[in-house]
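EI: anyone free to look at a 162-residue chain?
SC: sure, send it
EI:
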Amino acid sequence: MKSQDKIKQDKNIMKKNTAKNITNKKAKKKFIDKEKAKELTLKAAKILDDKKLEEIKILDLEDITSLSDFFILATASSSPQMKAGADAVYKELKEEGILPYSESENTSESLWHLSDYGFLVIHIFTKEGREYYDLDKLWLEAKEIEFNNLENKTIKTKKTNK
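SC: here you go
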């Protein structure tokens, strides 16, 4: 009986997510050129850094996939930190008129939070989730954009080596 309750709960969450996604997709899409996309991606990475997320990696997916222009991979020490990071990025990008097309639900058991902004997909993991899903290895061919020193504008692009 408990498993049926769990299935109903999961279906309700899926319905809620679907409704949320449809609502966001109905919002007027804003065209973002490559330079603006990169600027907003760097801003999002800085926000995650300010929230003390670790192992932040920006991947430039040009010439690799048409899914998105950029991915951000980041590691949180807990589920609440995952949510705090995602919420902070959401708030800042919303001020720019940018809303996600889709976001995953965050629960206390979540290993991975995903926010899809079209030009940018943000993946925030727990340490266990980062190791398990290993997107770093999956997107090995992507160019990594270093952002560690945003204040000094020493942003450079390199090929990932992991």
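EI: Strands lie at 54-60, 70-76, 102-103, 112-116, 120-126, 143-146, 156-159.
SC: 👍
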